[in-house]
Amino acid sequence: MKRFLRTADVLIEALPYIRKFEGKTIVIKYGGSAMVEEDLKRFFALDIILMKSVGIHPVIVHGGGPQIGKTMEKMGKIPKFIRGQRVTDDETMDIVQMVLGGKVNKEIVSLINSNGGRAVGLTGKDGGMIRARKLIVKEPSPETGVPEIIDLGKVGEVAEINPDIIRVMEQSGYIPVIAPVGEGENGDSCNINADLVAGSMAAALQAEKLILLTDVKGILDGEGNLVPTATRKHIEALKAAGVVTAGMLPKVTACLTALEGGVRKTHVIDGRIKHAVLLEVFTKGGVGTEIVTDQGNPS
Q1: Residues 92-143 pLDDT 10s
Q2: Where are the beta strands (DSSP E) in the chain?
Q3: For residue 64, which phi and psi values (nearest 5 degrees)?
Q4: Which CATH number fits domain 23-289: 3.40.50.720, 3.10.129.10, 3.30.565.10, 3.40.1160.10?
Q5: What is the pTM of this model?
Q6: What is the pLDDT of residues 51-70, one digit of tens each?
Q7: DSSP 220
């Protein structure tokens, strides 16, 4: 009986959040351990299905960097990165599309569908959903110290999001699963960081929340302690202090992009925790860091 009462308590705790988010869009960037470990993959799928079942519209943007790297190595290509961005020549772009738009995307769709959901896989090129422009990266020259443009190949950044196809899918009862490949100015494919795509997608959809799954507790301060809530000013201070670096930089950039676009709250959460997405959406405590506007109040 105690176990049943605990279950009832959990449902009652979730009720106000179900009411609050019914009919709202929540964009989730899926990556890290939650995309690799079998148990976590299944828990993630069940979280997404439950959200859709109670009237929330989850939109998934996924990564796949490790899978791309493994495929490149099998094909005799050595992955190369500059400032965290994968150098992407024509052959690498073919691999990126094959792995992200094919293997990884379809595995996620199959996982959701096999657990009772209705998911559809897309890339950013479908329906002209993600327009991209070439990403310009500058590095100081070793000889002169003057910044020089570094050619990363077919690496892009989001120029524009057309959310129409996502809206149609949401209203038709489907869960969109999006691979971060965009269409460049000449119709070429562009490899885009999945965190940044998720941030821009959340803004374009005027989502209620953006949730980014990662393999750490959230954003940590200089002493390694979790920062439960942060504003832009706090994030900028952590960046200036060299605390927010490397893989966390695109995540906080994505969060700030979403907030500027009208998203009310953004979250960087620990995807290694069982049912991390449900805990973030349906409980008061959450499982990571929430980033809000400077005027925002946590709730």
Answers
A1: 999 999 999 999 999 999 999 999 999 999 999 999 999 999 998 877 777 7
A2: 25-30, 57-62, 81-82, 85-86, 119-123, 130-134, 137-140, 147-150, 156-161, 175-179, 181-183, 189-191, 209-214, 229-231, 265-270, 288-292
A3: 160, 25
A4: 3.40.1160.10
A5: 0.92
A6: 999 999 999 999 998 899 99
A7: B
